[in-house]
Design brief:
The structure holds two protein chains of two kinds. By secondary structure, chain A is α/β, with parallel strands linked by helices. Chain A is about 50% helix and about 15% strand. Chain A has one domain. Chain A contains six helices and five strands. In chain A, β4, α5 and β5 form a beta-alpha-beta unit. Chain A is globular, with a radius of gyration of 16 Å. The mean pLDDT of chain A is about 95. By secondary structure, chain B is an alpha+beta fold. Chain B has a single domain, classed as ACT domain (Alpha-Beta Plaits, 2-Layer Sandwich). The model of chain B has no long low-confidence stretch (mean pLDDT about 90). The chains are: A alpha/beta, B alpha+beta. At the A-B interface, α1, α2, β3 and α6 of A face β1, β2, β5, α4 and α5 of B. β3 of chain A pairs antiparallel with β1 of chain B.
């Protein structure tokens, strides 16, 4: 089943729904797990070392701040594996420093540039919107190549 | 710099959130302990954290989810429970990432409602989800007009 990139990358709702409907959610936790389970030099809290902004050059130009490039070394491999994406726009809780904000913008831009199927949503704020939100995700996943439905 | 030796290598950790009128996190924990078979279970205020080999964790989560499918939610976690880099016992205050959970748990009842309604939905019914509003950008012609009006 397809690998589905989710944005926000830490979203419980998106991660659960994608997995529940039989697809693989590509979330930040998978990358963080890989990094913190790899031996090396101690660099708490996320084991990000000076090497990571260099790896980030694959997705961001050299004049982009190292904070964005370091974050891209975390998210970039997820983008590479993505076959579809679900983006929830304007998530309040992903508000953060300029590094986070610019990385979020770059991530969404790179997803759209990749020309994969993308579902654009907002978080539901009522029962009716919740029903449509879940149905839209189900329908989107069922429409992906290789889906069983 | 010190050398870093990771703990719990080869394991996965998953969060299990429960927001149910019929089940509490401690009910869920008791059920999880019954079938844990060596997998680490940590009870929390919102549900559980389950750490172990991926197939064992998935087996437990499938059993737990079957108890109340539309009110139990699962997601991956990068760090194992009690990791000193993330645990609030070491850091003080809310754990990083808690605010995201807090925000989404406020909306989770809408998702539960959506999952409950999904089987009775007609397959040909087109969903109309909340979508981002498109803002019209400034047209290039209009920008040119503005520039020219300022120059003259």
């Amino acid at each position: 089943m397809a690998n589905v990139f989710i944005f926000p990358t830490t979203s419980l709702i998106l991660s659960d729904l994608v997995a529940r409907f039989g697809y693989t959610p590509l979330s930040a936790a998978m990358q963080i797990r890989e990094i913190i389970q790899t031996p090396g030099l101690e660099s708490p809290p996320l084991q990000i070392t000076p090497e990571d902004p260099k790896k980030g050059l694959h997705w961001a130009a050299v004049e982009v701040p190292s904070g964005v490039r370091g974050r891209m070394s975390l998210y970039g491999p997820l983008l590479e594996r993505a076959e579809a994406a679900i983006i929830v726009n304007n998530p309040e809780y992903s508000f953060g420093c300029m590094g986070c904000a610019r990385t979020n913008e770059l991530l969404v831009f790179l997803v759209r540039k990749k020309k994969i199927p993308v579902l654009d949503l907002e978080y539901p704020t009522s029962d009716e919107e919740g029903r449509e939100f879940v149905a839209a995700i189900r329908r989107f996943l069922d429409s992906l190549p290789g889906a069983s439905a | 710099m010190k050398m870093y030796t990771p703990r719990y290598t080869g394991t996965v950790t998953k969060y299990v959130f429960v927001e149910s009128p019929e089940m509490t996190p401690s009910d869920l924990a008791i059920r999880a302990y019954e079938i844990s078979q060596g997998v680490m279970i940590k009870e929390t205020c919102f549900g559980l954290q389950v750490t172990g080999k991926e197939e064992d964790v998935n087996r437990i989560i499938d059993s737990l989810r079957a108890l109340d499918p539309v009110h139990i939610f699962v997601k991956d976690r990068g760090f194992p429970p009690g990791d000193t880099r993330r645990c609030r016992a070491n850091l003080g205050g809310a754990r990083p990432g808690y605010f995201g959970h807090e925000f989404e748990m406020g909306l989770i009842r809408f998702i539960s409602g959506g999952l409950t309604a999904l089987p009775s939905r007609r397959p040909d019914e087109v969903p109309e989800p909340p979508a981002p509003k498109r803002r019209e950008g400034l047209a290039a012609d209009r920008l040119k007009e503005i520039i020219e009006s300022q120059e003259s």
